[in-house]
Specification:
Cathepsin D, subunit A, domain 1; two-stranded antiparallel ribbon; 10 strands
Length: about 130
């Protein structure tokens, strides 16, 4: 898949499936400095990923500061033909001062066997779907 650069940062689009409903998420940052994958609550709410009374709320820290998130196990995250099934994501506000819908962290990148080719601005995969 071709990477798009916004403010010199690599972004992809992907499909996220939860309980059989799928949403395409356009502005997802590839971030090898993030251990986990997080999506903005506003982009996953349309397919039913909403906070529930039984959710534990966690605080995550990063370059942008701290943020409260909840987790959800989803059916699948797919970039083109590469899919990772039964995957846990974090969901939060993601108000970082610029347009971003999610962060694809090392949990997804390693599980999917991602190969980040910055010379050709491509994200490829070295293993079959998981």
């Amino acid at each position: 898949m071709r990477l798009a650069l916004y403010d010199d940062l690599p972004f992809v689009s992907l499909a996220l499936t939860y309980r059989g409903a799928t949403v395409t998420i356009a502005q997802v940052l590839i971030d090898t400095g993030s251990a986990s994958t997080i999506f903005a609550a506003r982009v996953v709410a349309p397919i039913g990923i909403l906070p529930e009374m039984t959710d534990d709320v966690y605080t995550v820290r990063g370059i942008g500061g701290t943020e409260a998130v909840f987790t959800r196990r989803i059916d699948c995250v797919a970039i083109e033909a590469q899919a990772v099934n039964n995957f846990e994501i974090e969901v939060g506000g993601m108000s970082y001062g610029f347009d971003i819908d999610g962060i694809l962290g090392m949990d997804f990148l390693t599980r999917a066997g991602a190969i980040i080719n910055l010379r050709d601005l491509r994200l490829d995969f070295g293993c079959s779907a998981l």
